Amino acid sequence: MEISDVSERISIVKQTNAAREHMIDCQLRPNEVNDERLISAVRAVAREHFVPKTLRSVAYADEDISVGGGRYLMEPMVFARLMDFAKIQEGDLVLDIGCATGYSSAVLAGLAGAVVALECDDALYEAAEKKLTDEGVMNAAVVKGDLDKGVAKQGPYDVIFCQGAVDDLPKALLKQLKDGGRLVCVKKIGGVGRALLVTRSDDDFQEKILFDANVADLPGFQVEKGFTF
């Protein structure tokens, strides 16, 4: 490899590391994400490795990033705030619904004991498997299937994380939570996206609205609008 190529690669790494720190300091911390364990998990994952090469320069922007097929990586601030409210512990089993290229699963794997990464899109499923392997993430397994059905056979879960907006949460999915388990998502309520925390206590599911959030939809969770006369 030419010396000039090495120098260019070092420069790119420095730039992306600086962009990651800027994201933490200017997007996460000002929005009350200050848990150092969570910050460390975000800092450890190169977000630019999980987006198309043409978008790597904006991988740390404060917006959803398109990864193809009408799917997106969630805006960093919303993603981090939802993680913060989920209170993920070291031994937790997490179901990551709509993992896309695997970025969210890589970060969650830095907090949890194990992550089940669910993806419905063939290309994204393959991308997630490859990227998680390439990044050396050993405690996350990618599963292909319908997002709204979850992965009951691997549960129950301490945390379920929906990587996008939903109209409704199927009971079959909520029942995959352990007693005391938490689900975080962005739910459309009255046409407005609201970050939501659902906590299970026996067969009771308590919902708490956390903050307003505008993120891309997750496929499979849309409620068909009926006709009105």
UniProtKB/TrEMBL annotation:
Q: Which InterPro entries match?
A: PCMT, SAM-dependent_MTases_sf
Stated family = Belongs to the methyltransferase superfamily. L-isoaspartyl/D-aspartyl protein methyltransferase family.
A GO CC term assigned to this protein in UniProt: cytoplasm
Q: Which GO terms describe its molecular function?
A: protein-L-isoaspartate (D-aspartate) O-methyltransferase activity
Q: According to the lineage, what is the superkingdom? A: Bacteria
Q: What is this protein called?
A: Protein-L-isoaspartate O-methyltransferase
Q: Which SUPFAM superfamilies match?
A: S-adenosyl-L-methionine-dependent methyltransferases
One Pfam family linked to the record: PCMT
